[in-house]
Amino acid sequence: MKIKELAILVKGVAEGDDEIDITGLSGIESARLGDITFAVDEAHLTSAEKSDVSCVLTDDMLRKSTKPLIRVKNPKLSFLIIYNKLHTAESKNAFVHATAVVSTSAHVGNNVWIGPGVVVEDGVTIGDHVIIESNSVVKKNSKIGSFSHIFPNVTLYENVKLGKNVILHAGVVIGSDGFGYVKDGGTIYKFPQLGSVIIEDNVEIGANTTVDRGSLSDTVIGAGTKIDNICQIAHNVKVGKNVLIAAQCGISGSTVLGNNVTMGGQAGAVDNITIGDNVIIGAKSAVIGNIEKNSVVWGIPARPIANTKRQMAVLSWLTKNSKTLSKMMKVGST
Amino acid sequence: MKIKELAILVKGVAEGDDEIDITGLSGIESARLGDITFAVDEAHLTSAEKSDVSCVLTDDMLRKSTKPLIRVKNPKLSFLIIYNKLHTAESKNAFVHATAVVSTSAHVGNNVWIGPGVVVEDGVTIGDHVIIESNSVVKKNSKIGSFSHIFPNVTLYENVKLGKNVILHAGVVIGSDGFGYVKDGGTIYKFPQLGSVIIEDNVEIGANTTVDRGSLSDTVIGAGTKIDNICQIAHNVKVGKNVLIAAQCGISGSTVLGNNVTMGGQAGAVDNITIGDNVIIGAKSAVIGNIEKNSVVWGIPARPIANTKRQMAVLSWLTKNSKTLSKMMKVGST
Amino acid sequence: MKIKELAILVKGVAEGDDEIDITGLSGIESARLGDITFAVDEAHLTSAEKSDVSCVLTDDMLRKSTKPLIRVKNPKLSFLIIYNKLHTAESKNAFVHATAVVSTSAHVGNNVWIGPGVVVEDGVTIGDHVIIESNSVVKKNSKIGSFSHIFPNVTLYENVKLGKNVILHAGVVIGSDGFGYVKDGGTIYKFPQLGSVIIEDNVEIGANTTVDRGSLSDTVIGAGTKIDNICQIAHNVKVGKNVLIAAQCGISGSTVLGNNVTMGGQAGAVDNITIGDNVIIGAKSAVIGNIEKNSVVWGIPARPIANTKRQMAVLSWLTKNSKTLSKMMKVGST
What value does the mean pLDDT take over residues C289-297? Predict the structure, then answer.
């Protein structure tokens, strides 16, 4: 497509030669002639100018360029729109590899692709256009909504429900037993984990993340939520819609996250608390109590970020002035 | 069973109509007519009363109810006892799926169930009533004790020993090489990892947790210990009996945990330290030295929890009064 | 081999009876007659003397012993050299298990061993002497360098490149999509992850670790680097050469680590920062900004370790003296 056609597609304004043909997309580092890229600051734009790239998506804030530009509100989003225009999603035909083991009692939709070594147990329901890649295992009575994509070596335990357009990356485990025990004297008894996991539409879950089944209620991941790699979602947790959870986070049992919550990497939340809508939790935080909606918290334990930063600044200042303080205290105590 | 029969089973006292038939168990959220549930506080009991549940297990502390009750010492434990009475564990017959690859030199006990795609290598010993689910891999000369349950996509490296009634959830890795290297100049050489892993009876290990084999001695997980998802147990670690390790904890090389230790989520312990019996380690703690038995520690680094809380309180107080402090120090330094 | 022969091999000096035959290696705990072990301090040496071990590698710092010794500069390295002499690496012949699914368009080198249930997709290139263990999956167009060893249940996504002599432990995932989204109003769109992963020669990656593919550039792990279990390397990260990353670390998107960096367990680094050569990052640190080369940092946030320790000491001192301080402040504020 020509630059002027792409400008129309992304509702932007072309600047410079808009008759050039664009044949691909790339980051600035690997840009080739014919590619379009995006720049969100002057440094990016300078890099783009030094490359062979043929067109740059930017916003109105950036300067004029020696390269053809398309000015838009959100360059990254426009880049995505062009990507989706130029790349049609890989469409697979109905296929079950000879080495897959699919129960005769499973209900398999149209255009489902089932790779080598996949195991689909009794009573499973698979929607249309689902892809299940090599060596993944779907246990009894689980349901997978249409257009979902299960990467290799994933495990779904019994009776788990995935919505439509769910993406599970390699090594994900959904529906494992929660960490529930009853102590009686010196002995630890396993408590029944009778609930399930409900994963709503458009959820993406990163590699090697685990989501435990509920003990007596269900674990729920709300629609549109994205969870990064190696996270742990414990039993009975309810995660809201459009939540972003970065890598290596952990959410303990029965905790509730509202909608649009963001968790930075390696953060954790204790059990049985409620985190309100739109809360932002800084990386590595330990959330140990309820958090009001719209708060921004950070720290161990997590508090409003300004408090945490102020405490850090005060401690730093006290450390620098500890000699003065020490002298005063000697005087003061005599 | 009737309520009066269940009361006898759990050594409790029925209150209200004890002739009602109980046909299932459930949490308060999903309770149906005919179910029994449990309540550990007044709020739970109120919720139960609003549900269709037919009977509630409680202790002596709670008020009278409109619902039939069974009063017991430990309602959760009694719930578990009734669960075990009503649910007989799934018993599988001897079975090896046609797609499983089981070495002719493996010793397979009675009533062992081996699912699709499972690989059992040479010299492996599998006890009676073991279940190995789809696509799990058991490498050479490993031993699995009777009544153990291996979920899908698990990997046991060579020469690992599991006791009886061990549960390994999906994606668990036992016996991978420890992180052992020798630096010589700029080069990093791999140090031999010649030890093994011994997992004693009644251990349960959560999804995607890893336990490394010992380098020159063995890594040991004591009987009755329960480890949650995505934990890392390093080479040569000795974990005692009846230990509870919550999700995403890490224990570094050669560290020793006593019996009945509890670790909160995302806690870590450095290498070559000893943590005494009955120690409780708060979530997200960093244990960087030996811990006396019976201690309760928290923080980064972990200290007695009262110390950590007091330091936090003092810092908070100093931050609030930093202006006063600042004035004093200006006066003091002149 | 006799002790005197081993002494020549490791360029050491034998002390005591050097005619004894050594038939194996072991740690002090499990030492048998005929074994050689190593001792790096007096306590180790004392333990060795109480065992049946036949020879001890030590350095010049340790005392004389009742056991035959070989004195060397680096006992652990010498132990490794002897181990490599006595153990020849398991050499496998060319083999493809009947249940493996290897695309006819894959290029498979000489003496490649492919285990049961392995899936090798179209266009994959596998070098000579590679081992791919049971149920691992190698997606389209990936490349695996010679002498690499892939343990069971590993997943390589499309177009990933492994160098020579790379070791991937069980459950590793390489090339999963990075955590990249664009928000537009209330909706979260998936951003294309078009880059790849390049893993250079002699890298070892621990069990259940994940390395995401780049979004617009590649994710790179430098030669000789060793990564422990359950780590997360995000999209576009560049890790230098001979880096050591302990278990459960996380490195966020586009961050650059220099050569010879060391990260302690459970440490994390935020996105888009640069960590210089030879930096040492203490366990559980949160690196939230660029770090100068040769620094030693620790803490949340990570600062020069002396600063962090001093702040901790000052807070501890203030806490102990908080009553005195409180009195002074009452006086000061009146």
Answer: 98
